[in-house]
Amino acid sequence: MSDETDARTRSEERAERAERMAKEGAEAMAEHLAAVKAVDERTVRLRALRLAKEAADAEAAAAAAAAAPPKRKRS
């Protein structure tokens, strides 16, 4: 009977280990997906900021070019 009890105990331990590993794997995947989502959100936000800055810079350069008097050539 002790062999049968030992086999059952080992089987239960393997099942518990498999369940624990599945749970830890699911938690790790959730953490990974959350990190990927955070990176994507930051990327979108930073891209929007960069595009807004580039547009503002281009507008300022156009305004400065329009406001500057034309240069005269010296002979």
From TrEMBL:
Positions of the UniProt region annotated as Disordered: 1-23
Name listed for the protein in its UniProt record: Uncharacterized protein
Biological source species: Methylobacterium gossipiicola
Lineage, uppermost ranks: Bacteria, Pseudomonadati, Pseudomonadota, Alphaproteobacteria, Hyphomicrobiales
